[in-house]
Please model this.
Amino acid sequence: MMGEREESTGGVGRFTMLLIGVGIGALLGVLYAPKAGVETREDIADFRRRNRGKVRDILSTINEKIPGRVKAAAAYGAIKEGAGEAGREVKEKVNEAFS
Model:
């Protein structure tokens, strides 16, 4: 039962949940920050300026890897489906031969 659920959600569902968790954590961090709003916004803007290239690199890496992983998952699903179908056919043939 558990394996079926994991298979249906896949990596994309987990990644989405991770992003939601990060977003909620960031929002709570900003809401409960000890600094004034203006200072916090300035800090965020400075952080964005300093790390803009790094964020682009990370997003680029993610964009490069996701299509390959999706294709691999689709291929795995096709192989699994084909193997299941072949197994059913063999079982039918054996049943016909011994009936």
In short: The chain has one domain: 11-97. Residues 11-97 form one domain. The radius of gyration is 24 Å. The first helix runs from residue 2 to 31.
